[in-house]
Amino acid sequence: MIFDCNTLTAAELYPLLAGTIVPRPIAWVSTVDEYGRSNLAPFSFFQLVCDAPPTLMLSVNRKAGGAQKDTARNIAATGQLVVHLVSPADLALMNATAGDYAPDVSEIDALQIATVPAQMVKPPRLAHSLVSFECECVSLSAYPAEAPACDLILAKVLCLHIDDSLLNAEGRIRHDQIDWLARLGGQWYCHTQHEDNLTLARPNQATPRR
Ligand SMILES: Cc1cc2nc3c(=O)[nH]c(=O)nc-3n(C[C@H](O)[C@H](O)[C@H](O)COP(=O)(O)O)c2cc1C
């Protein structure tokens, strides 16, 4: 079956795209507004898009009517965010932070999530998070410009926090210990740690550089 994007509505296209381009990592993003009030929400339209400079991409949909979600509005106002990766134990809590909270209500306060100050930016860091990235926004663009459906955000990573349990004696990532929650289509999720995970050497390259 072929699906012609010119004949489908956004509501018809979303489950076809989001249900096939899987798994998607989840960015659990903390921000603050211009008054310093905190916000926390998950986003799976998220990726590492450049390592030099270290840059993440985040796509935040507009609400019905075109208003920005709190996360995009806060990033536009302050230029800062902290991106956390989500451990399986946080499934319910992560989902709860996607609830419909008023802009002046902090999901962090409402759900009593413990935080610690970030080192280089104002948004707080989740105290229990195993990996987080303190970032500054380098680009926020409404897309598409003529009728914005989302805000595309490029965020430069200023520093990484990686729990010692995920590092070996040489300070390298213990790949077999990394276990994040990732989004599949609809209400489906998966873990990145799985008994079928495997290793594969690149031709003529012991350790992949890219
Ligand atoms: C696992 C998961 C992934 C999500 N991914 C996205 C996404 O990529 N883009 C988006 O706009 N909303 C996404 N959402 C919905 C937002 O988290 C939700 O709209 C949230 O209320 C936005 O919060 P904010 O208004 O505080 O920014 C996702 C929700 C969940 C549970």
Automatic annotation (TrEMBL):
Residues passing through the membrane, by range: none
Entries under Gene3D superfamilies matching the protein: Electron Transport, Fmn-binding Protein, Chain A
Domain Flavin reductase like: 19-176
InterPro entries assigned: Flavin_Rdtase-like_dom (IPR002563), Split_barrel_FMN-bd (IPR012349)
Family assignment from sequence similarity: Belongs to the flavoredoxin family.
Keywords associated with the record: Flavoprotein, FMN, Oxidoreductase
SUPFAM superfamilies reported in the protein's UniProt record: FMN-binding split barrel
Domain of life: Bacteria
Organism: Rheinheimera tilapiae
Cofactor: FMN
Name this protein carries in UniProt: Flavin reductase family protein
EC number of this enzyme: 1.5.1.-
Any one GO molecular-function label of the UniProt entry: oxidoreductase activity
A Pfam family annotated for this UniProt entry: Flavin_Reduct
